[in-house]
Amino acid sequence: MTPQLQSQAKHNGGAGGDVSAWRDSARIVLQPIAAPSILGLFGFAGATFMVAAHQAEWFGNAQSPVFLFPFAAMFGGLAQFLAGMWAYRARDGVATAAHGTWGSFWLAYGILWLLVATGDITLPPGGKFVELGYWFLVLAAITTSIAIASAGESVGIFAVLSTLAAGSAFTAIGFLTTGTTWEQVGGWVFIASAAMAWYVATAMLVAAAWGRVVLPLGKLKKEANVPGRELTYPIEFERGEPGVKQGQ
Known about the structure:
Layout: H1 3-13, H2 20-25, H3 36-55, H4 64-89, H5 93-117, H6 130-150, H7 155-177, H8 180-210, E1 237-238, E2 241-242
Antiparallel strand pairs: 1-2
């Protein structure tokens, strides 16, 4: 066993680091895939920024969502939902929940505005949209749960999800009370979440392309935030399943 493998085996095998039984007799099946959250976070960042910038009144008018929804549905919806499904194979529960939940929402957002554009439904007058407000309450609650779980592995993902949950809560208040100020506040918080998602995705992408840490990844492990460190091993003994790497 190489020194690198010995170090990893000791890390995962306990104080003794005795993994000889695994190494000598276990059948190892590898299914390598790129980190799904690279696509998921970029899709989320793009769609969230564009919609949130309009919500914060940086640009546009009441008709702007009609022009935004095709891109939000594909970029933030389909791409992110697919990333959530691929996260199953990466055995990453946090990414599966986050991308699956928000990818589904962006797809539904696109369908909603498609129906508005075709005249099949009419939005409530006066800015009060109780039904959508309650959906944002649901999103705030679910995203808070995912954020709490993510705190066990990544400060960067926790920052993305915690601000996302807060933005959902502010937006919900706005839709439930016709409070345009709350909607604007929610838009600003969403923009902050999108910016952090862009950074985390960029750090993951560059690390994957260069084979080492270039930008701090925001994970709890110190080595994940030290430029130049290598984070992958030929074979990993992770949580009792030799050869199977958990997470991204």
